[in-house]
């Protein structure tokens, strides 16, 4: 590929030859080299403007393809597909159904995005969808009725690695949502109607059942499963091999089968800019709530109220968020929070 400077030099040299009548003085070898240079520069310009579509790719004539899109061999693009500018579809990838892909996305070899279903799959900009991932497939919920609209919305700058599966919603009134800047490592599964926020990290084989909510900056270790309808709070950490069957409040670290509270996610809090003073406040609040002594051995509601009235910690917004997260987990249709082995009866 020629650089812009080389292309400019070639044009200047060609103009000089034409104006001076010097072309006839070039040897056949020099003329062949000049023609090859001209052809390469022309191909480079065409690729930058219109992209490249391999002759074995099957593109429906009604599909909308942006500028500078590269489509590799044996790809297929359905009629209702819209692909943004500067996207790359690598060999054997498939875009199906009513699917919209934003600018500068990379769909790697073997990946399948969308499905031939009622509804829609929307992929934002600057996303990478890994080898053989399946994004926007039909849900695995037996309550889904064939013909119902189902939806998946993925934000921007997500890295969805190889063999991941992300399913559409189970009904037209809901949607599966992935936010921005998430790293979803290999072989993860995100089921129907899940809501995933921003800047989360899911290690390999993280499995989310239907209707799970993950807030922001959560981190899972490998091979964990989360029960349907659970909530995973912001800045929380789930240890490897855990089975999570109840909510994980904000800032908490859980692990085990069944997962139990093990303390605060101290390392995660430090990495995300929480001050030492804020962390000390959170630790004091955690101890009052989950490590009761004789002076505060009442029920959970009593201990939460005591934290809210403690002048040393109540003024920290992080403490307020943590208390609110715990309270919301006991609302109707929620699952409560992961157990702590040292709890007194509450």
TrEMBL record:
Q: Which GO terms describe its cellular component?
A: membrane; mitochondrion
Key word Lipoprotein present in the record? no
Q: Which Pfam family, any one of them, does this sequence belong to?
A: Hexapep
The keyword Zinc-finger is annotated on this UniProt entry: no
Query: Where is the region Disordered?
Result: 28-47
List, alphabetically, the Gene3D superfamilies matched.
Answer: Hexapeptide repeat proteins, Udp N-acetylglucosamine O-acyltransferase, C-terminal domain
For biological process, the GO terms are:
lipid A biosynthetic process; lipid X metabolic process
Location of the UDP N-acetylglucosamine O-acyltransferase C-terminal domain: 247-338
Which UniProt keywords are listed? Acyltransferase, Cytoplasm, Lipid A biosynthesis, Lipid biosynthesis, Lipid metabolism, Transferase
InterPro entries xrefs: Acetyltransf_C (IPR029098), Acetyltransf_C_sf (IPR037157), GMPPB_C (IPR056729), Hexapep (IPR001451), Lipid_A_LpxA (IPR010137), Trimer_LpxA-like_sf (IPR011004)
Q: Name one GO molecular function term.
A: acyl-[acyl-carrier-protein]-UDP-N-acetylglucosamine O-acyltransferase activity
- List residues of the Mannose-1-phosphate guanyltransferase C-terminal domain: 54-139
Which CDD domains did the record assign? LbH_UDP-GlcNAc_AT
> Which NCBIfam families does the protein's record reference?
PRK05289.1
Can you say what this protein is called? UDP N-acetylglucosamine O-acyltransferase C-terminal domain-containing protein
Annotated source species: Musa acuminata subsp. malaccensis
Q: Organism classification, top ranks?
A: Eukaryota, Viridiplantae, Streptophyta, Embryophyta, Tracheophyta
């Amino acid at each position: 590929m020629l650089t812009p400077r080389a292309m400019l030099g070639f044009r200047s040299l060609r103009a000089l030859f034409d104006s001076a009548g010097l072309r006839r003085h070039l040897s056949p070898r020099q003329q062949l080299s000049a023609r090859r240079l001209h052809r390469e520069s022309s191909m480079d310009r065409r690729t930058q403007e219109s992209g490249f579509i391999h002759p074995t790719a099957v593109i429906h004539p009604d599909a909308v393809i942006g500028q500078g899109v590269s489509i590799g061999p044996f790809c297929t693009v359905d009629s209702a597909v819209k692909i943004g500018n500067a996207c790359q579809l690598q060999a054997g990838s498939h875009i199906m159904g009513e699917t919209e892909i934003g600018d500068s996305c990379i769909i790697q070899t073997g990946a399948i995005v969308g499905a031939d279903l009622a509804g829609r799959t929307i992929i934002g900009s600057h996303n990478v969808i890994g080898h053989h991932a399946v994004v926007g497939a039909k849900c695995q919920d037996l309550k889904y009725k064939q013909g119902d609209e189902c939806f998946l919305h993925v934000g921007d700058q997500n890295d969805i690695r190889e063999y991941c599966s992300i399913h559409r919603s189970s009904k037209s009134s809901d949607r599966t949502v992935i936010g921005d800047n998430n790293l979803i490592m290999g072989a993860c599964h995100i089921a129907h109607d899940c809501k995933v926020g921003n800047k989360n990290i899911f290690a390999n084989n993280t499995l989310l059942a239907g209707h799970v909510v993950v807030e922001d900056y959560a981190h899972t270790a490998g091979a964990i499963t989360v029960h349907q309808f659970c909530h995973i709070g912001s800045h929380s950490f789930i240890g490897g091999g855990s089975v999570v069957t109840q909510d994980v409040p904000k800032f908490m670290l859980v692990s085990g089968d069944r997962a139990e509270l093990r303390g605060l996610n101290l390392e995660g809090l430090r990495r995300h800019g929480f001050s030492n003073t804020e962390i000390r406040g959170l630790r004091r609040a955690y101890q009052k709530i989950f490590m009761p002594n004789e002076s505060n051995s009442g029920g959970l509601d009593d201990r939460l109220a005591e934290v809210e009235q403690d002048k040393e910690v109540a003024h920290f917004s992080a403490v307020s968020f943590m208390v609110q997260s715990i309270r919301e987990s006991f609302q109707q249709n929620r699952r409560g929070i992961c157990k702590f082995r040292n709890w007194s009866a509450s």
